[in-house]
Specification:
The complex is a heterodimer of chains A (316) and B (302). Chain A has 316 residues and is mainly α. Chain A has one domain: MetI-like (MetI-like fold, Orthogonal Bundle), CATH 1.10.3720. Helices cover 75% and strands 1% of the residues of chain A. Chain A is built from 13 helices and 2 strands, in the order ααββααααααααααα. A two-stranded antiparallel sheet of chain A has the order 1-2. Chain A is globular and about 70 Å long. Classes of the chains: A mainly alpha (316), B mainly alpha (302).
């Protein structure tokens, strides 16, 4: 770009047609400039600079002053019991929220794939929770999950169960927080699966039918393999979402420690607590970097499993 | 589960195995199967689960705190909505929050759609050096959560003295790698190369080609991207609560304040939730179909 631009300008005065040609080599970059300027300043730079900041002592009140700490922030994080607790919570809440979510989404997509009356209505209604903000959804569910007067405990009481303490119990509170995630994202994932199902060629089903495969076997041997890329995609997206879960545990009771004994504090919330609760921005940056590496590892594992499974399938 | 009599539900795949196969024509392919009664029952159940929290928000927002502590709870809306709305206006300045959210989400939507259409067009139809590499960087960062960059971002806006000002949320909000990719995929298919060539032969300038050839064709894609961007911007949570405070809040910042434990009146909190959700629900009610289409489109292409 730097080579062609001045050359183009020099010739421009003499012949307008070659000026135009020069402009043609430069103009693509003009189209890209607005996005990449913003991207560099507010997207790429913060991500990379996080690693740098994580090696310094930076206080929230004086974010301009940086004092070299080496790996001190990492040492502080790794020796904090609450870090390991929030790591474990992130993992358990991630599993409790992601697995049922994706399985139910698959089932719903299967149902939505039938020829239905009012299918636009069903699809739109499924997506309604996705349109709600984390904050709004969590505040409503926090109300529903109230220990003494919550509707959920009332209904459980009707069938002779509970009352469950959805706030203090470790398992109960994690289930409650996961419920919010499941509610918000199941419909969205169902639509993604539906889109995947609709792009499976119908000839495959016809062939399976001719071979006398039952509906269930068609689902297992045609639908699921056809959906593999979609399933990998949703798993990756959900894993990333689960790793940085933040709003739900923050607003469930409104405490940045994720419950009275940190019983549902996630890594995202732990990072926020360190940075904006205890003013250790450097330490928060170390946690962000750990989360980033964690996401890389998880996505890598996902990809590995996916590749191994498809290879197994192929060799069969 | 009463439908179990008609079709034993031994797994979602067998729902259609009708005990009286003669009556029903066997369909050719998966996608043309008719939904049975059980399918409708399950879908209606799913709709109810999706919608109930909204209904409950209305119920709780229109009652008093004392009503909510009653056993059995009241399941119908009450008369207190206006009183709760007034209370929440006072406690969390929801009015200002709504206006701020409108400004923030509106600017982000317009800016993002413009930037992404420009870049998407370049990636889709123009030849230039570094195209592959730049696209790879864009797509590669699509999956990285922006939440991981908040600390340097905060230090940056603190240095610029933008803390508590709306541009601190708007400018970072304009960065959408997904949007660039989405517009690229849209234009690769929708915009024929011949059209650009023809316009060039006619002597149209680059800017002119963009405005009078690319944009008209890109419009449906831009509309979908705009809708998705608006909803995402309206609902964005982490960065706004870091960059803004209750003195100059967006809706989500105000809701975080409401849920922060200082307000104890549940019905007032629910009134705030209702007010903060209504605008997106309005958008969704009017354009839900397009949003559904956009998400399914994005899924196939993405």
């Amino acid at each position: 770009m730097t080579l062609t631009a001045p050359a183009g300008k020099a010739v421009a005065a003499a012949r307008p047609s070659s000026a135009r040609r020069a402009w043609r080599t430069v103009s693509p970059y003009a189209y890209l400039a607005p996005f990449f300027t913003l991207f560099a300043a507010f997207g790429l730079f913060p991500l990379l600079y996080t690693a740098f900041v994580s090696l310094y002592r930076v206080e929230l009140q004086t974010p301009g002053d940086m004092e070299w700490r080496g790996l001190g922030n990492y040492a502080a994080v790794f020796t904090d019991d609450y870090f390991w607790l929030s790591l474990r919570n992130t993992f358990t809440i991630g599993v409790i929220s992601t697995v049922p979510q994706l399985v139910m989404a698959l089932g719903l997509a299967h149902l939505l794939n039938y020829r239905l009356r009012g299918r636009t209505f069903f699809r739109t209604a499924m997506l309604l929770p996705y349109a709600t903000s984390v904050a709004a959804a969590t505040l409503v569910f926090a109300q529903l999950f109230g220990r003494d007067f919550g509707l959920i405990n009332y209904v459980l009481g009707l069938v002779g169960f509970g009352p469950v303490d959805w706030q203090t119990g470790t398992v109960a509170s994690q289930i409650a927080v996961s419920t919010i995630v499941i509610w918000r994202w199941t419909g969205y994932n169902a639509l993604i699966y539906l889109a995947g199902m609709q792009s499976i060629p119908s000839e495959l089903y016809e062939a399976a039918e001719m071979d006398g495969a039952s509906r269930w076997r068609q689902f297992i041997h045609v639908t699921l393999p056809g959906l593999r890329p979609t399933i990998v995609f949703t798993t990756v997206v959900s894993t990333i979402g689960a790793t940085q879960l933040f709003g739900e545990p923050l607003l469930f009771e409104g405490s940045i420690s994720g419950g009275i004994s940190h019983q549902y504090q996630t890594l995202g919330l732990y990072m926020y607590e360190q940075g904006w609760g205890f003013f250790h921005l450097g330490r928060a940056a170390a946690i962000a970097w750990v989360m980033f590496l964690l996401i890389l590892v998880l996505v890598g594992v996902n990809a590995l499993i996916a590749r191994r499974r498809s290879r197994k399938e192929a060799s069969r | 589960m009463t439908a179990a009599l008609a079709a034993p539900p031994s797994g979602s795949g067998t729902v259609e195995d009708d005990p009286v196969p003669v009556r029903r024509k066997r369909s050719r392919a998966g996608r043309t199967m008719h939904g049975g009664r059980l399918a409708y029952a399950l879908l209606i159940l799913a709709v109810l689960v999706s919608a109930f929290p909204f209904y409950w928000t209305i119920v709780a927002a229109s009652r008093s705190n004392a009503d909510l502590a009653k056993v059995p709870p009241s399941l119908l809306p009450g008369p207190n909505l206006m009183r709760n709305v007034e209370a929440v206006m006072e406690e969390a300045d929801i009015g200002k929050a709504l206006l701020n959210s409108l400004i923030v989400s509106g600017s982000i939507t317009v800016g993002t759609v413009l930037c992404c259409t420009l870049a998407g067009f370049a990636f889709a139809k123009l030849r230039f050096r570094g195209r592959g590499a730049l696209l790879a960087v864009t797509v590669g960062t699509m999956m990285i959560p922006p939440q991981l960059g908040v600390i340097p971002l905060f230090m940056l806006i603190a240095k610029l003295e933008w803390v508590n000002q709306l541009q601190s949320v708007i400018l970072p909000g304009l960065v959408s790698a997904f949007g660039v990719f989405f517009m690229r995929q849209f234009l690769v298919q929708a915009l024929p190369d011949e059209l650009i060539e023809a316009a060039r032969v006619d002597g149209a300038s680059s800017a002119r080609i963009f405005w009078s050839v690319v944009v008209p064709i890109a419009r449906p894609g831009m509309a979908v991207l705009g809708l998705l961007t608006f909803m995402a911007a309206w609902n964005d949570f982490f960065w706004p609560i870091v960059a803004l405070s209750s003195q100059n809040p967006t809706v989500q910042v105000a809701l975080r304040q409401l849920g922060g434990g200082y307000v104890h009146d549940q019905s007032v909190i629910m009134a705030g939730t209702l007010l903060g959700t209504l605008p997106v629900l309005l958008v969704f009610g009017l354009l839900g179909r397009q949003i559904v289409g956009g998400i399914m489109q994005g899924a196939v292409k993405g």
